[in-house]
Specification:
The complex is a heterodimer.
Chain A (H helix, E strand, L loop, with lengths): L1 H6 L2 E12 L2 E12 L3 E5 L6 H8 L7 E6 L2 E7 L2 E4 L2 H9 L1 E4 L11 H11 L5 H14 L15 H13 L5 E5 L10 H13 L3 E6 L2 H7 L2 E6 L2 E7 H6 L4 H9 L1
Parallel strand pairs in A: 3-9, 3-10, 7-8, 8-9
Antiparallel strand pairs in A: 1-2, 1-4, 4-5, 5-6, 10-11
Helix pairs in contact in A: 4-5, 4-6
Chain B lengths: L1 H39 L4 H16 L2 H11 L9 H27 L2 H10 L3 H31 L11 H12 L3 H27 L5
Classes of the chains: A alpha/beta, B mainly alpha.
Chain lengths: 258, 213
């Protein structure tokens, strides 16, 4: 086990992350790492800081202190107690390694499904239209959406929108893909589909980070669970360990509720 | 009927001035409006404050007064424009302020998630604005812009104050000369036709942007 562990690259390293909004500290000394092919769920009640943590990792929020390292490149590194961020050019390269599927998907409503997916490959990576569209069609096919290529987001169901958002993120070939509450906008029957897609991504050696308060979903899909409360990591354990013998009363209470 | 024919040459001459003021004002004040909206939304407080002051002055004083100020006031401090340029300057700066506020609302109405998605995908700020925000903003601002454009048609009649002969002035001159209301009816018909065409254009534009929700 140890040998395999060493071969697996650590794709995301978060070290000593702190973040405050005005006086309120929302993230307190957060540290964890994720290896390639690993599916990690961050669980916790609302207000625990899960979303802020995700927004720090994807660069939408700036953290105050701590390091964030994505595939061996520092997004920010602590120097003299303050996080120092990479130059905007480096940030672009780092950002490309990290895909993001938003809770409300944030598809571009004025663009067709195909145009949503090729937007960044063409305008950021400089791919030709043909190349980008071929990749996009391949992704859509994998996700069972090829006949929707010309549709607009408003014509799609929630589950379909989510798959387009996944395809859009995957078109940049990220090493890490993050999901913000992936089950919140879905009918219960569709959860199994998302779970299957997430597992497929992990098989391609992507690291998958899922923010959720959906216990069942975490139980279904994650290999590892990080439990957060009041801006701190309370528990970080393999799934079996987490659901069978959670440390601490608060974690237990949260687990038992579901 | 033949009386109306005799009116047409002077009316059409007036209409030309009206159309020139109208078209050039739109052409210049819409880009200015986008610029004003961006300045107004700037995170740099000084820029945002100055823009607010500009908007306040432009919206807070009558356009008629602004026309008088540019043509008769500025020469006092040695800045001279010909009649047409003076009128155009006043109109462009006035309408730029109104368009600026309309566009600002349009930009603010675009979901912040759109910017975040674009940012995550690695689009630059300029790309995000041009490719993601602007097209969605245009759809939202079309109805208020249509209002403003139709108001502009009628506001062009104010340029008489700097001595330009536009449509309404041509009508008034004929009306006074011939002691008849007919020229003014003809003027009204011209304005109505003009706004009917514009209404149709904006309806088509709205339909064109109706391909998504």
């Amino acid at each position: 086990m140890d040998i395999i562990d060493k071969e697996m690259k650590k794709l995301l390293k978060v070290q000593g992350l702190n973040k405050s909004f005005k006086e309120k500290q929302v993230l307190k000394d957060i540290s964890f790492q994720i290896k390639e092919g690993q599916i990690v769920a961050i669980l916790g009640p609302s207000g625990a800081g899960k979303t802020t943590l995700l927004r720090c990792i994807n660069g939408l929020e700036l953290c105050d202190a701590g390091d964030i390292e994505i595939d061996e490149m520092f997004l920010c590194k602590e120097e003299e107690g303050k996080s120092v961020y990479a130059s905007s050019k480096e940030k672009g390269a780092i950002r490309r390694k990290l895909g993001m599927v938003f809770q409300s998907f944030n598809l571009f409503p004025h663009r067709s499904v195909l145009e949503n997916i090729v937007e960044a490959p063409i305008n950021v990576l400089g791919f030709s239209k043909k190349e980008a569209e071929d990749t996009a069609m391949r992704l859509l096919k994998e996700l069972g959406l090829e006949e929707k290529a010309k549709a607009y987001p408003y014509e799609l169901s929630g589950g379909q929108k989510q798959r387009v958002a996944i395809a859009r993120a995957c078109a940049l070939e990220p090493n890490i893909i993050c999901f913000d509450e992936p089950t919140s906008a879905l009918d219960p029957e569709l959860r199994e589909d998302v779970a299957a897609i997430i597992e497929k991504l992990a098989k391609k050696n992507m690291a998958v980070l899922i923010i959720t308060h959906d216990m069942d979903f975490a139980k279904r899909v994650a290999e590892r669970v990080i439990f957060m409360e009041e801006g701190q990591i309370i528990e970080d354990a393999a799934k079996e360990e987490f659901f069978n013998s959670p440390k601490g009363g608060r974690v237990q209470k949260f687990v038992l509720k579901y | 009927m033949s009386y109306i024919y005799t009116l047409l040459p002077s009316m059409l001459e007036g209409l030309t001035t009206t159309l020139e003021v109208f078209a050039l004002t739109l052409l210049l004040s819409i880009p200015l409006g986008v610029f004003v909206a961006l300045c107004r939304l700037s995170k740099v407080k000084v820029i945002s404050d100055i823009t607010q002051l500009y908007i306040w002055i432009m919206r807070g004083t009558p356009l008629l007064l602004q026309l008088i100020f540019v043509f008769f006031g500025l020469p006092i401090v040695g800045v001279n424009f010909n009649r047409f340029t003076a009128a155009l300057i006043a109109f462009v700066f006035n309408y730029g302020a109104y368009f600026g506020e309309i566009f600002r609302c349009g930009i603010e109405a675009v979901d912040v998630g759109q910017c975040e998605a674009a940012q995550i995908l690695g689009l630059t700020q300029a790309q995000t604005f041009m490719r993601i925000i602007l097209p969605q903003m245009i759809k939202m601002v079309l109805p208020p812009v249509a209002n403003e454009v139709i108001t502009l048609v009628k506001d062009t009649s104010l340029v008489y104050v700097v001595g330009l002969g536009e449509l309404l002035r041509a009508g008034k001159i004929a009306s006074n000369r011939d002691a008849s209301l007919t020229p003014l009816v003809v003027v009204a018909i011209f304005y109505l036709l003009f706004t009917a065409v514009l209404t149709k254009i904006f309806k088509n534009l709205e339909n064109r942007y109706g391909y998504y929700r």
